[in-house]
Structure formats: C-alpha cells, structure tokens
Automatic annotation (TrEMBL), chains A, B:
GO terms for molecular function: 5-(carboxyamino)imidazole ribonucleotide synthase activity; ATP binding; metal ion binding; phosphoribosylaminoimidazole carboxylase activity. InterPro entries: ATP-grasp, ATP-grasp_carboxylate-amine, ATP_grasp_subdomain_1, PreATP-grasp_dom_sf, PurK, PurK_C, PurT/PurK_preATP-grasp, Rudment_hybrid_motif. Residues 111-297 form the ATP-grasp domain. Keywords: ATP-binding, Ligase, Nucleotide-binding, Purine biosynthesis. It comes from the Bacteria. Its EC number is 6.3.4.18. The gene is purK. ATP binds at K107, K149, E180, T181, M182, V183, E188, N267, E268. Pfam families: ATP-grasp, PurK_C, RS_preATP-grasp-like. This is N5-carboxyaminoimidazole ribonucleotide synthase. It catalyses: 5-amino-1-(5-phospho-beta-D-ribosyl)imidazole + hydrogencarbonate + ATP = 5-carboxyamino-1-(5-phospho-D-ribosyl)imidazole + ADP + phosphate + 2 H(+). Belongs to the PurK/PurT family. GO terms for cellular component: cytosol. Homodimer.
Amino acid sequence: MNYFSSHFKLGILGGGQLGKMLLFDTRKFDIQTYVLDPSDEAPCKIACNHFFQGDLMDFETVYNFGKQVDVLTFEIELVNLDALEKLENEGTKVYPSPKTLKLIQNKGIQKEFYIKNNIPTAPFKRYATLKDLVVDLVDSNIQLPFVWKCTEFGYDGNGVKVIRQTTDLENLPNVECIAETMVPFKNELAVIVCRNPQGEIKTYPVVEMEFHPEANQVEYVICPARIDDKVAEKARAIALNVSQQFNHVGLLAVEMFQTEDDEILVNEVAPRPHNSGHYSIEASYTSQFENHLRAILDLPLGNTESKVAGIMVNLSGAEGFSGDVIYENIEKILGWNGVTPHIYGKKQTRPFRKMGHVTIVNEDINEARRIAEDVKNTIRVIS
Amino acid sequence: MNYFSSHFKLGILGGGQLGKMLLFDTRKFDIQTYVLDPSDEAPCKIACNHFFQGDLMDFETVYNFGKQVDVLTFEIELVNLDALEKLENEGTKVYPSPKTLKLIQNKGIQKEFYIKNNIPTAPFKRYATLKDLVVDLVDSNIQLPFVWKCTEFGYDGNGVKVIRQTTDLENLPNVECIAETMVPFKNELAVIVCRNPQGEIKTYPVVEMEFHPEANQVEYVICPARIDDKVAEKARAIALNVSQQFNHVGLLAVEMFQTEDDEILVNEVAPRPHNSGHYSIEASYTSQFENHLRAILDLPLGNTESKVAGIMVNLSGAEGFSGDVIYENIEKILGWNGVTPHIYGKKQTRPFRKMGHVTIVNEDINEARRIAEDVKNTIRVIS
C-alpha cells in the first residue's frame, strides 16, 4: 500500500488535541486524513484534509464517515461501536479493533478480562446498579474504604470516587459500577505499548506520575520513572502481556500501580495516544503519535527510546477564570532551557479544562524536574 | 502581545515546504496564520488558518495580503519588495526586514555588503551584463577559471556555473552577473543564526555539507560538522557578525567555505529557515522553524544545541521519472534506527525536484553517517 502523497485515506474519529498531535505526523508523511468531530471548533479542523462535523455516538454518522476511508482509527473511546463493527465486517481496517474497544469501554468487563488472563489487578466486585452495591455493603460483603467506579463514560477522574463512609455514596448516579479494593501504592506508573498487525511490538520506557503531596492530583509525568530497574522491567513485561492478550493494534497506554511491596497492578488502559506519552514528542526518538500511525498502517515501528529525559506538566484552566484564554507568563517559560508549550487551540478557558501541556527536556532528569516545578509555578491559564 | 489562541495574525509569503514546516510550530502554539502562494496545491494550504492564492511578485497582491496581518514573514526571497517596504512604512512588522532582503536578493549587492563590512568572502567583480563580463575577460582583467553567478533569481545551483574555458559562457543569459575567484576549499559549512528584535542572538552548531566525490553534489548535511573546534568557533563568530551587520531579525542561514588553509569565506546567506537546518527538527532542543517563529514574534529564543547528532539526506526526484510520485522502499528505511522521512506533499515528481528529506539521528555521529548512506542508497523517488 502506498500511503505517502497518494489517494490513501486515513479516517480519525475525534478531532481533539490527541488528533491534532497525530496530524503533525500525517502531515510530515503527507498521508491524507479525514476527521469526524461534533465541534465546528475542533483543534483538528485545520491540518486534516477533510473535516466532517457530526456525532461520534451516532451509528449512521460514524458508518457513513467510515465508508469513505481505507483505515479508520480513533482518538477518543466514546464512539459508536456498532458502526465500527459493521465497518470492520465489511472490510474497512479499524485499528484499534472494535473488539478491543468493547472490552475496554466498560470498566467492569475490562477488569474481568484481566482476571481471566491472569493480569494482576486490584480485587473488585461488579454491580448492575449502585443500589446493588449498597445492598452488598449493608450485607457486609464488601468493606469500607473502597473505590467506586462507574463502568462507562468516565474520564479524567470523573466517575471515580473513594468511599470512606456510607454517606460518600450519596449523590452518586444509580448506574453500573464496580467497587475496587483500595490498595496502598507508592507510585502510579504507565507504559505505552505499540503493536502493528504483523505483531511487531515495542514499549516506551516506564513513566511515573508524580502527585501533589496534598491535592492528590497528578502534577508531573516523568520519563524515565525514578524507580528500581527490576520494578520497571516487571511493569514493561506486564504492559506487553496486556497488549498481546488484547491482540492490540496501535497504541495501548497501560496505567499501573506500584504497591508498597513492589507489586504491579494494572489499573486501566487507553487504546490510543495518551497524556502519559506526550513527553515523547520532544524526548523520544519516535513520538507516540508517529508510532500510533506506523502501527495502524502496518509500517515498522520507530525507536521508543529517549534522547533525553522528559517531563510533562498539564496546562489546565485556573480556578475562577472563564472566557477568552490568556496564557500568563508563557513568554517567561519560553526563555528556559528545553521548555516547549503545546497549546491545544481551545479559545475559551474554564476551571480545570485541559488547555495544553508543557514538556521539559534535559539530559539531567533532576534539572528537568527543577525546571518543571518552576514552569508549574509560573504559567497560569487565565482569562 | 498575546499570540496564543488569540486574534493575532501572522502572515507568511510563500506556501512551500519551508512554510509547511513552520506551520507545525504555529499549530503547536496555536498562532493564527495567513498564507499567500501562487499554487492552489501549495503544501501550506492545509494547516494554515487562511490560504490565499496569488502572485508573490505582484505589488497589489502582496500589499493587500500584508494589510490583513500583524506580523509578516516569508519563506521564499522572491517576493515583491516594494510592497514589503510600503507595509513596513505603514506600521506592519515585516521580519526579516525588506532592507535586509534588498541587500540579499541581488548577489552583487550582497557581496559588496560583505566587502564593505569586512566580512571575508571570495574576490569577485560585478557586471551589468554578460557582455561586459566577456569584454573584461577578453581584456584579461579576470582569469579563467572563475565562477559565474547571475545576481538575481538564482536558486539551488541554478544561475551558478564554473567557467573553465570561454566556450562555457555560451548559452548563459545576458543578465547582471558576477565573476567570482575560484577558491579551493575542503569543506562547505553553514551556520544558522537567529536573532530577535530585542537583539537576543544565538547560533546553531556548524554543519558540514558532504559532497559526492564525483558528482560534486551535496549528499549529506551533517551536524555537528566534523571539523576542528577552532575552525568551528571561527565560522560561528563570522556568522554572528554577518547577522549583526544586517541587523537581522529571524533566521539567517550563512553558507561558508573552509579553505585549504582553514580560512572561512562567506559564500551567501538566506534570510529564512534553510535546508541546512532541517536536521534540527529531530536533533535540536529547538528546531530552526520554532526559533524563526520565536525570533519574529520577539519571544525568547530556544536552545539551539543538539540532543543527538543529526544528518539530513535530500529526497529529490530520480532521473527518468515524471508523474504521480512513489517513495520506493520508504517502508524499509522506516525500520531503521532514528530515521524520519519528511514528505513535502508534492503529488508529482520530476527529475531533481525537491520532494522531501530524511533525517537520521543517533548518539554516535559515525553510526548516523553509516545509516544515512544506507538511506541514500535505498529510498528512491520514482513514479
């Protein structure tokens, strides 16, 4: 197949920042792209070859869009699965596969998949409704504290809550959910795996999510993770196994916990380029986006190793500001060594809205960490 | 000035591959762009915010385009200078300045500028027409061999010819030209300088153009140049001086000869991102394109040092092929360590047409050089 400056068409469901960063590489290779997104202001609207506005959960819209392209991928999981399955049955290459997506879209099914395939994960129970969970709790079949997770449509901390006392269950939606045992962990890690249809498979180095000591929020994604080599090796091996068990094609970001006694537990996966791999644009020989593209087009995978250490800081809308966005002090951080802001292109900020990220690279990871902290304390997303 | 996700407008004259690569960074920073190019199939057409089709040499077209934007730059020197001057006089920021462009557009004036400012360059004489040159030669005021260069509109070897015997002058156009003394040199070097309006100035490392031993054609651009540190230091100092003498804003690529006795002579300059800096996308902390953008927007300049060694190989149309392009064996080179093809997006190949380039990065420059040779011998631009 000739992908380069040809009539080949790659379809992308979703036109957000992940798609936008993927388009840097389709442009670099001059691969023709079709993008579908509900918003007329989607960051992908420019830089793709053809933009279509439409509902990603609507069967007809997704099916008709998919019929126009040769290979179909997605940058968001919330897409119409039936349409993807029909397209795949009719011969369109859909990567990652709708089968994988089906296993992942529901967290209960995802967790059951891990158990079935001997992939270590925190113990849990699955409930059709919140009421069923409450009954089980009253019957003392589960113990406080635990982590409540709704099984579908959660993202970025939405749909996840630590339940320490029964009153914490008030106001939760009465939907399908799981109750997961709270496992004390010392690190949250992630490994991005890429795999092509021929079965070539590579992992990026293990990254570490460093949390704010009080706010319990991820502040920095650090590559490589500052952990013991043996633990890193174990995390990579588990991530590879997860990708192989899914028979996955494309990127799979595997989020994991490192427990107090150095066990690795798989938390959840994302079948696409992932926030934990953004550092790779500047730090890696091949960015996660280029490797996603290589994987779904069955091209050889690029080197996943790093040229230098990389740290990512998210740029989220500051509390108390809504409206036309201003990146306060961005000129200041641009003057520092190895600092690259990525502005996603959303014109309006809101509290906590993901507006961009900043990558800090340096030969010395400690120096990168120091600069990252300065970046975090300097730039502000206001209006 | 708020450039990021704002109403600020950057205008770019020319929509070719240099503009296309610049747009990766305007997209990364979400800076609004207007592009003017004569071709409806310009590589910049997608990924800019507003594309205008029009003649870059036409006063009205360039002037009206420029009136719409806040800062105006160009990716090609062949633009209407009068329009730029009028725009600058009326308050539009034009970077690089039309004054510099005026000094550079004509190679005779450019050479005289070097002489006047004590910048080392090969001896030359300037002629209003080829006939005047011939008269001077007949009168023995200049000696064979010498290098004939037409003073305007030459590019990529067009408009340059080594004259070894008088018959070599046949068929040359009867235009303004210079006759330059042939100075034996052992290396062709280049240094990219960036400078912002505040006067912050940085150079990229010295790169080396390695020539094919027989064809006398540049085959590889190698960063850093494999030359003595003292010579590199001299080349950087001369390049810095050239940029300062021009009072230049933006990128200035300074091409130089290293003579047999390690003198540095300035050959010519280009006031824009340059082929000799393409390696910087993968190898440098800040690419030449991002630094051009930072410079013309008066932002702090990024780190010009390299993370790893970088080598660039041009992808030109193979002889004997015209028509819909095919990049033969591109899948093969994608499997090699640190290899990144850039496909400019021209749908039709012609012999020697610049269709793209390939960057090879590696910690070890010798290993990069070995892979670069394999790349050169493997990929072919055919139809």
